[in-house]
Amino acid sequence: DLARLTEELRRMEGASYGRYKSLAGDWDFGHFTLAIERVQSDPFAPPSRIAVRIPGPVAGLPVHALHPAARRRATADHLVRLAHRSLKGARLRIDAGGQEVIERSAGRIDDSGAVVLRLGIELPGRGRRIDARTAERELCDRLPAMVEAVRWSELDPGTAEAFADTVEDTVALRDRLAGLGLVAFVADGAVLPRRSGVSDLPMDGAAVAFRAPDSLRVAVDLPHAGRVTGLGIPEGITLIVGGGFHGKSTLLHALERGVYDHIPGDGRELVATRPDSVKIRAEEGRRVQRTDVSAFVRNLPTGADTADFSTENASGSTSQAANIAEALEAGARTLLVDEDTTATNLMIRDSRMQELVHGDREPLTPFVDLVRPLHRRHGVSTVLVMGGSGDYFDVADHVVMLDGYRPYDVTARARELAAERRDAAFAPPAQRIVDPASVDPTARGRARLKRRDMDVLTFGETDIDVRALAQLVDPGQIIGVGLAMRLLAEDGLLDDRPLSEALDLLDRRLADGGAPALGRGYTGDYALPRRYEVAAALNRLRTLRVLG
Ligand code: ADP
Ligand code: MG
Questions:
Q1: What is the distance in A from the centroid of ligand 1 to the CA of 207?
Q2: Ligand index nearest the alpha carbon of residue 254
Q3: Which ligand has its closest atom nearest to the C-alpha of 194?
Q4: Residue 48: strand pairing partners
Q5: What confidence tens digit (pLDDT) does each residue in 363-387 have?
Q6: Ligand 1, closest atom to CA 206?
Q7: For ligand 1, mutation pick of 200, 239, 250 (most atoms within 8 Å of CB)
Q8: Using a CB cutoff of 8 Å and minimum separation of 24, what contacts does 356-365 make?
Q9: What are residue 33's DSSP bridge partners?
Q10: At what angle do helices 69-86 and 157-177 cross, to 10 degrees?
Q11: Could you tell me the distance, in angstroms and rounded to a whole number, from the CA of residue 266 to the centre of ligand 1?
C-alpha cells in the first residue's frame, strides 16, 4: 500500500484540506501497517492520530527484551524514546515521556512481540489546501525510517538491554522493601538533586552523591546490579532534619518519585519507595466533599460536623486533614510530608501556644499526636521533613540529619532531647460511596477530556485543579486520570461499593489490561496514573456527590 498511499497523496496536492479525511483507515506497508485513526478537519485543529503496528518477526525482539513483564514495559518505553529521537524535526510526534518510565499509550508490545506505536501528525497544508509533498515525506519516508530505527537488528542492543536491566532492578528493589521492613531505599551513589526547579534532569557536576549513614545502611541483591547498599528507611516514623538548604526537600522529592521507575542516567534509578506512598500537603482553597476529618479537626467555630465535613474553600489545615483522610481511604500506607508545604497549625502546637489557647478553643489535633497511633494501630508509616521544630523528636523512630547533603543518623541524640507525649486517638476515616452520576465526563453530549499543562484536568464540563498532586509527574497521566475516572463511572465500578473497593477494581483492570484498558476509544496520548491520584482528582471534582 505504500505505492497506493504515495499515489493517493500526489493526487491530493492542492486539493481542499478536507480531502485528507479520505486517508482514514488501514494501510499495509508490507513490513508494518499504518492505521490512520483520526484526521483533523483543518490545519489548526489538534493533530491527526495514527498507529503503527510492527509485527513480531519484523520487530525482532529477543525473549530477554520481553520477559519478565517489567522488561517488556521497559523495552516498549525505550522503543518510544528511539522513535522520538528518529523523528527529530518531523511533523510526526510521539509522546516519549520524561525521566520516569511509565506505561503509556504511545508504545506497547503485545503478547506476540508486535510493537504498536501511536503518534500524532499535523497534516501539512498551505492555507486550506493540502500540501501533499510534505505529507508524503512524513508518511512515506520518515515513518518507515522510524520503523527501521526501532527494529532490534537496527538499534544498539547494549543500550536497550541496560534500559530493561535498570527498570527490572528498580522493580525488584521496590518489591523487596516490604519484606525488609522498609518504606524506602536510597542507594549509595544516587544523584537526587535536579538541574533546576523546572528541569527534571539530574544536576551535573556539583551534585553530592548520596551516601547512607552506616547505622541505617542496608544491602539488597538485585538481578543485574548485584549487591547494592544504601539508606533503608524503616517502617514507622522517620524524621528528616537539618539546616535550611541542606537537601531535605530534595531527598523527600526523590522519595515521592520513588514510586516510579527511572531511565538509566537519571541518578534515581535505585531510589525506590513503597507503591502505597502518598505525598501529603496543605492545599488552601480546595473543595472537600463529605470527608471524615474528625481525627484532626473538631469543634469548628461554625459548628460543622467534622466527621462529615464539606466545604467549597478549605483552610490550610482542613485541606491537609482532608488530604490525609482521603489518601488513607484510597489505601495509602506511607505518608510523605514536607514542612515546606504543610499547615504549621496542623503539624505542631508548642507548650506556650497550648498555655495561651486552651484545648476546647483549639479545634485541631496536631499531626504530631496522631502520627504514632497511625503507625501502631493502623500500620501507616510517615516520612517527615521537619527542620523547624523538635516536637517530632518525641514520636520519631528514626531521625536522619542532612548536613551538606550528607545524611547522618542522629536518632540517639534526638531521643535525649525528646519528651513524653500522649497520643491522641485515631479512628480510620469513614469509607465513602461516591454517586456515579456525579462523575460525568460529558460536555454537550460528548465525552470531553483535556488538560492544561500540569495544572488542570478538564473532565466533562468541570475543571479539576491537580497542581497539588505532587506524584502526578507526566502530562499523559493527567489524561490517564480522566480516563480512569470515566471508566470508574461508566463501567459501574463506583456503584454500591466504597470508593476504596472501586479503586481495587480499577487496579485489577489496569494490572490485567495495561494502558489499553483505559483507552475507551480515546486516540490521544495518555499514561497510566496511580489509584491515589485518580482518587485525589475525583475528590477535587466540583460536581462530586457522596452518597454516604
Ligand atoms: P532544604 O529542604 O533542606 O532547605 P533543598 O532540598 O531545597 O534544601 O536543597 C537546597 C538546594 O541544594 C537546592 O538548590 C538543591 O538543588 C541543592 N541540593 C540538594 N541536594 C543536593 C546534593 N546532593 N548535591 C548538590 N546540591 C544539592
Ligand atoms: Mg525544604
A1: 9
A2: 1
A3: 1
A4: 121
A5: 899 999 999 999 999 999 999 999 9
A6: 25
A7: 250
A8: 360/299, 363/297, 363/298, 363/299, 363/300, 363/301, 363/306, 364/296, 364/297, 364/317, 365/295, 365/296, 365/297, 365/298, 365/424
A9: 28, 53
A10: 140
A11: 16
Report which protein residue has its CA nearest ligand 1's atom 15.
193
On whether the CB atoms of residues 167 and 74 are closer than 8 A, the answer is yes
List pLDDT tens digits, range 256-313: 999 999 999 999 999 999 999 999 999 999 999 999 999 999 888 888 899 999 999 9
The residue whose grid cell reads 492520530 is: 49
Which helix (H) or strand (E) is 239 found in, with range?
strand 237-242
CA angle 147, 50, 461 (to 5 degrees): 145
Element (H, E) at 443: strand 442-443
Nearest to 307 by CA among 296, 315, 320: 296
Q: Which three cell numbers stand for residue 62?
A: 529477543
Alpha helices in 65-128 (DSSP H): 69-86
Which ligand 1 atom minimizes the distance to the CA of 192? 23
Ligand nearest to the CA of 208: 1
Give nearest CA residue, ligand 1 atom 27: 193
Cα gap 265→334, rounded to integer Å: 27
Q: What atom of ligand 1 comes closest to residue 191's alpha carbon?
A: 23
Ligand 1 proximal residues by C-beta, below 6 Å: 192-193, 203, 206-208, 242, 244-250, 405
The DSSP secondary-structure symbol of 444 reads T
